[in-house]
């Protein structure tokens, strides 16, 4: 396993990490979740990603039970939670980024995870109804209270992250350290264009999600629509409509040929492609089966095969590389 610094912080995260979105407490049984965490941990993974909104809080309960059972040294792993969407109930003040929900949401997440603190805490989405100043103050105080060690954002715009940094700097508060954006061969603008000044000026780290575009870049949708895959879930219609289109399927079939030329799987090629970006601190893997996770944990072996020529071939196929001019 390779370990990378989380941005300019001193924290080192495994280049590959394990996420629980759509799987823990929902798609898979608890014993399978435990097996996946065992495989990941034994493979050198030290970061496990979670959120209050995953399976209405059940994902954190499952992960917390596993961590308690394993009794791994607390210094050997990193756990995250994300606050915004709430857990089971969605009453006023039970969602969003108000100081009240950030404090209570974090407290409840710690109870579900059975931890004294989380290493990383994210503002899971920007909140248009709460001033960024209130959110930054609340996150600073959570850090000061020892409820979390580092805070960051997920799916915020570059402008919103910059505003948070400027307010934190002006008031001598702890700034956001990391962002969790979607990033893959088909979805590149934030990481490769919008965030470049954030990397240059603030040293932001990234814990990227959906390296395989929710399974599309594994090739399993090339000739069919597997009913047990995540695109079949009712709450993912928005993702299915955006990604599962004929033009993308055509691109994936061409990418499959590149993977075969490199004697690897398309899934590993997609993950390795993300790892090739030096601004990626860690790639969050999702898995529902042990064999799937074991295979994808070897994706680091493919990174050296991604020559400039191969990367150019991929760019030509996807047509998604942004044209960037940095002043």
What overall geometry do the principal axes of the alpha carbons give?
globular
* Average residue-wise pLDDT: 94
* The CATH homologous superfamily: NADP-dependent oxidoreductase domain
Q: What number of structural domains do the residues give?
A: 1
Q: CATH topology, anyone?
A: TIM Barrel
Widest β-sheet, arrangement of strands: 3-4-5-6-7-8-9-10
Number of helices: 13
Counting helices, strands and paired strands, the structural category is alpha/beta
| Percentage of residues in strands | 5-15%
Which bin fits the share of residues in helices?
40-55%
What is the architecture at the second tier of CATH?
Answer: Alpha-Beta Barrel
Q: What does the radius of gyration come to?
A: 19 Å
The CA-CA distance between the termini, in Å, is 36 Å
- Name of the CATH class: Alpha Beta
Strand segment count: 10
Order of helices and strands: EEEHHEHEHEHEHEHHEHHHEHH
Runs in which pLDDT lies below 50 for 5 or more consecutive residues are none
Q: In summary, what is this structure?
A:
This protein has helices spanning 23-27, 30-42, 58-70, 99-113, 132-144, 158-170, 189-194, 196-202, 237-243, 246-261, 266-275, 290-296, 308-318; strands spanning 3-5, 12-14, 16-19, 47-49, 78-83, 118-123, 148-153, 178-179, 205-208, 282-285. By secondary structure, it is an alpha/beta fold.
């Amino acid at each position: 396993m390779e370990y990378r610094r989380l941005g300019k912080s001193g924290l080192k995260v495994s280049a590959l990490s394990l996420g629980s979105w759509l799987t823990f407490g929902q798609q898979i049984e608890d014993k399978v979740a435990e097996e996946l965490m065992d495989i990941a941990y034994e493979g050198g993974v030290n970061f496990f990603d979670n959120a209050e909104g995953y399976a209405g809080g059940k994902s954190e309960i499952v992960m917390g039970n596993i961590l308690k059972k394993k009794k791994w040294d607390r210094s050997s792993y990193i756990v995250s939670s994300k606050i915004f969407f709430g857990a089971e109930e969605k009453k006023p003040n039970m969602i969003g980024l108000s100081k009240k929900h950030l404090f209570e949401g974090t407290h409840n997440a710690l109870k579900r995870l059975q931890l004294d603190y989380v290493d990383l805490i994210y503002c899971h989405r920007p909140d248009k109804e709460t001033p960024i100043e209130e959110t930054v103050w609340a996150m600073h105080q959570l850090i000061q209270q020892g409820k979390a060690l580092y805070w960051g954002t997920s799916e915020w715009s570059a402008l919103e992250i910059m505003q948070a940094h400027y307010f934190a700097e002006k008031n001598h508060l702890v700034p956001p350290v990391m962002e969790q954006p979607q990033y893959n061969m088909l979805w590149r603008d934030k990481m490769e264009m919008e965030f470049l000044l954030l990397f240059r000026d603030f040293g932001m780290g990234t814990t990227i999600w959906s390296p395989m575009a929710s399974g599309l870049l594994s090739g399993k949708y090339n000739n069919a629509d597997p009913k047990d895959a995540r695109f079949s879930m009712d709450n993912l219609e928005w993702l299915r409509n955006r990604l599962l289109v004929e033009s993308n399927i055509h691109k994936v079939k061409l990418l499959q040929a590149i993977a075969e030329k490199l004697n690897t799987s398309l899934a590993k090629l997609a993950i390795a492609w993300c790892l090739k970006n030096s601004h990626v601190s860690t790639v969050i893997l999702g898995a529902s089966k042990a064999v799937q996770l074991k295979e994808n944990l070897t994706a680091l072996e493919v990174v050296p095969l991604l020559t400039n020529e191969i990367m150019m071939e991929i760019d030509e196929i996807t047509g998604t590389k942004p044209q960037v001019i940095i002043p």
